[in-house]
Amino acid sequence: MARGYTCCRGYTCCQPWLLVSKFARWALSHLDIVINALKPSFLILMTWGHLLFTLLPPLSTFFSIKSETSASTLNPPNSATKMSEPASKAFLLFLTLIFLFFTSTLPRDLPDATTTTTTTILDVASSLQQAHNILSFDLQTQKSSTHTTITTSTPSFSNSSLSFSLELHPRETIYKIHHKDYKSLVLSRLHRDTVRFNSLTATLQLALEDISKSDLKPLETEIKPEDLSTPVTSGTSQGSGEYFTRVGVGNPARQFYMVLDTGSDINWLQCQPCTDCYQQTDPIFDPTASSTYAPVTCQSQQCSSLEMSSCRSGQCLYQVNYGDGSYTFGDFATESVSFGNSGSVKNVALGCGHDNEGLFVGAAGLLGLGGGPLSLTNQLKATSFSYCLVNRDSAGSSTLDFNSAQLGVDSVTAPLMKNRKIDTFYYVGLSGMSVGGQMVSIPESTFRLDESGNGGIIVDCGTAITRLQTQAYNPLRDAFVRMTQNLKLTSAVALFDTCYDLSGQASVRVPTVSFHFADGKSWNLPAANYLIPVDSAGTYCFAFAPTTSSLSIIGNVQQQGTRVTFDLANNRMGFSPNKCQ
């Protein structure tokens, strides 16, 4: 008898049965994966089975005749031999073909029995409730607790020797535009985000093409006497900026909501008199009512640091264009800026905008937290700053902190890098990404910042949706789709090409998406930071988007609930989950 293993009612099976048996044991322990993999091939399996069982009788006869012919001259006829050998060979052929079928139809990257998929739970019911609540949020309640005027004296400092802390608020809790439903709110956010992304890529492109300051000319804007009495007019009905903070300007200090922006450098706010101002929630700043307001001269270092400037009567004029058609134009001045009860800083250079148009509705102006010389961080001589962004549908708030960076053992740290072509952006050393604990096949050069200033990935609080180069986005999305075959796919929404119908579900388990940094550490995202609702009916989309630009951006949706620290003194970045308080 041939050496082997006895099975199947006495038939003798050869060594391939071990492979089939091993595969069967794996399949039984991973039944959900096997079922999902075989769904599109079910009809093929049925056809193969029918064909094999149809061929078994003639195959058995063939093997029987051949066996009798070859053995008759050596051995006397034996009924058991004539029956067992052809049957076992036919059965072996059947098992081998089934084995080949399984190995050809299962995904090639299917994990083996020892692979563990890292998952996290998405609380569908909770996020849909937040989506409902933000539409009915009482704006007056929020205003009553945040609209204040500093009347008591606060400490004044000429530098950033002390720590400062400011509250941060999601946009919808400060300035509310009526939306008929949650989907229309999401679409307006995505429109603003596309404009924002285009603005950043346009800024980078100018830097890469070595456009000099002399090539940039301010608009020919002249303030005429009759314009001084022009009433305030609103800009576009959209509005820019997803997170606002509240600072005091002038002496006595008046409080204003300002957009937080790590993607630009110039600080500015709307000023009286206005030739063209958009609608904001606070009264427009009147520089004549402040004792610390001082125009900047054309010969000053602050004026020469502006990319676009001109002079009028010896005083410096500024203009900032944001690449989306939005701009602000006016006088460049220094003023006292106060940070709640933390104190105030004198002589902060900022723009006093008399002509402002574009997507800024709601905020009085903008705080530039970029890496340029005129940014608030540089003027404060800050050694570090950090922020934590609460969920945009939340009524809660968090803080923007200066000079209080603490990268503890629970912080995921990464290299902080600068682009020699543009000092505004904060680049992070990203080496790759994973889904479900398995590294995604992304070219090593995708996230690398090269010598010419191309490539790389920045961290930006003003961009909502993370943008990845196509060669990174496509394999990331495909890996996520492969591991979520138990979820029902639905049609695309706006810039999202991968969406799911989670209606009727309270929670779902999804593979964890992680960023992996150059120093070997990884940042695991909560499910709510990459699978977000786009309507109130239960449609959720994979919150990443592809771009053909060389620039990739980690947006604020992925940053929600994480304290993001910029350690400027040590060129390090930190990501600390659940540190918003």
Quick rundown:
The protein is α+β, with helices and mostly antiparallel strands. The protein has eleven helices and 33 strands.
Walk me through the structure.
The chain is α+β, with helices and mostly antiparallel strands and 581 residues long. It has a domain at 5-105. Helices cover 26% and strands 28% of the residues. It contains eleven helices and 33 strands. The chain has a six-stranded mixed beta barrel. A four-stranded antiparallel sheet has the order 20-19-26-27, covered by helices on one side.
SSE map:
Elements: E1 5-7, E2 11-13, H1 16-29, H2 31-38, H3 42-71, H4 79-105, E3 119-123, H5 124-135, H6 139-146, E4 156-157, E5 164-170, H7 182-208, E6 243-249, E7 254-261, E8 268-270, E9 294-295, H8 301-304, E10 309-312, E11 315-321, E12 327-338, E13 344-357, E14 365-368, H9 376-379, E15 384-388, E16 398-402, E17 412-419, E18 422-428, E19 430-435, E20 438-439, E21 457-459, E22 466-469, H10 470-482, E23 489-490, E24 499-501, E25 507-511, E26 513-517, E27 522-524, E28 531-533, E29 539-542, E30 544-547, E31 552-554, H11 556-559, E32 562-567, E33 572-577
Parallel strand pairs: 4-13, 7-14, 8-13, 21-31, 22-30
Antiparallel strand pairs: 1-2, 3-25, 5-6, 5-16, 6-7, 6-12, 8-14, 9-12, 10-11, 11-12, 12-13, 15-16, 15-32, 17-18, 17-33, 19-20, 19-26, 23-24, 24-29, 26-27, 28-29, 32-33
Helix pairs in contact: 1-4, 3-4
